[in-house]
């Protein structure tokens, strides 16, 4: 059985097409990631999956149940962590957890083994008000509350946005451990490096899915030769290479610029050109495409298509 | 049921963890009762009077002495200049100008009718009318004294006068506090019921916690009931506190049954809580809610008959008051506290409140959407 089966889902806000013809499916026990820029439609999609929003077009079945007709049943079986921290800041850690256990008709004790890995990190602070926790600890509490009723599907909307790098990595480790409890995780993130930690990812932009596959396969789908070029003055470098006639694409990438050429390769005229622009220290080397490169390539195609 | 109890428990924890609100819900009733009850009165006393005495006779002195002796007037100025008097009235230094023209004493002494001119500041119409009536009373008194003094010398006997005695029921001393206190109690409970509960609900929306609640299996009616019950209880406690202050501080009479009063207040609270939650389901920020709630509360209170007699309002306004819970409860409170009315006497009011309570709660539950 597919955990999520979405068929041509569409949603409009007035004139804006937030979601456009989304067809995809999510398998049991996998971590399925939605990667895309802000405003791509990730939150809208998640609100449909969690029965908070009705789709205008198409059909979606979650855990075999229609999201429109079976919302009552689904609310017992899914856990949702909204992008914004939505627990009670004026209740303590323990009170929040007990509250959500009770409204789902269960107790903390009953499902403690499920959250033990996560909750043990914040248990020493159980008497602290949730509002007084650090960002990373808030996320762990929110995750514990979303899991306390042993959902079959966990939906996490940008759980790591605004969290430091160490906490982010820790958070993904915890998600990985959920596999052994046969919990399917659907997660969205704007961070490309996190995409690699999903079993499968969907690249989403302007309400459309560009590609769905394992992250490695998406990466390998990159169709050109990629080079990385660096110089002390990155800003001048990128403006210069973008004007170079042989350049196809040039995107900033950390300290370097990722560049592709219309003939796939470059020649010495590139260096002569850069020197003419006053950049004498440019170093270029071949590079392996990351998922972000593939994403940018797909976006480019989407824009020209 | 366990869920509702747990939801209610959560609300109480949050209310009492909020340092400001937890104190304010008990401080507000005490302060409101101690300030509003003695301050809001329609008794008109100490009307500032300016006298232009151009006569300066023994007759005019007698008139001034009589006015000075009355509790209603306070002679703040005496002058000869009409311009100065007008100027004083213009500057709000006096409310009434009494002009005693020269020759007033001479005319009276010779048994001819004399005249006075009174100018009254009528910005507040009821103050103006009462000032005029008080002034008339003093003059009538004076006339009577004059005619009985003249009895011996005159052949003609004075015309017979009809004397009337009366008794004021339910509030023999005409103490305005007795009239206002039951109404102030209602204002108190309205503030708790309408504003606190509604704000609490919108706050969950504004900070986003409602999103997390909406994905849980909590039912709509469970959520609404859990939002109502804590404020119903707090409202009733505040009412008890208000009554206690009324008894201890102002010695307000309590003729009827306390249980009946609390029954009315319970129905009333459910009605305003339902309305408040209905408004809050329609607004998405606390600012929006406050603006609309302020409008409702002001309209309900000003049209409730607390300050102005219900019967003198226009017919359409009286019709509106059929859905005004404040108007119904003020009537119940006054009848139960001052008249000792029983359940049969106020059955109409109770039934009306019950219907408003039922409908507003029903609409609030129906209007509350877990799906956006």
Task: Characterise this structure.
The complex is a heterodimer of chains A (305) and B (372). In chain A, the strands form 3 sheets. Chain A has a 6-stranded mixed beta sheet with strand order 6-7-8-3-9-10, with helices on both faces. A 4-stranded antiparallel beta sheet of chain A has the order 2-1-4-5, with helices on one face. A 4-stranded antiparallel beta sheet of chain A has the order 12-13-11-14, covered by helices on one side. Helices cover 34% and strands 27% of the residues of chain A. In chain A, helix 3 runs parallel beside helix 5 and helix 4 runs antiparallel to helix 5 (135-147). Chain A is α/β, with parallel strands linked by helices. The two termini of chain A are 35 Å apart. Chain A contains 11 helices and 14 strands. The mean pLDDT of chain A is 91. Chain A has helices at 42-49, 71-77, 93-103, 112-122, 135-147, 165-177, 192-195, 215-220, 234-243, 269-276, 291-304, and strands at residues 4-13, 16-26, 31-35, 57-62, 65-66, 78-81, 153-156, 184-189, 200-205, 208-213, 226-230, 247-253, 256-261, 283-287. Chain A folds into 2 domains: 4-220, P-loop containing nucleotide triphosphate hydrolases (Rossmann fold, 3-Layer(aba) Sandwich), CATH 3.40.50.300; 226-288, Alpha-Beta Plaits. Chain A is globular and about 70 Å long. Chain B has 2 domains: 7-40 and 177-367, no CATH class; 47-150, abc type-2 transporter like fold. Chain B is 65% helix and 6% strand. Chain B has 14 helices and 4 strands. In chain B, strand 1, helix 3 and strand 2 (73-79) form a beta-alpha-beta unit. Chain B is elongated, with a radius of gyration of 29 Å. At the A-B interface, helix 2 and helix 3 of A face helix 1 and helix 8 of B.
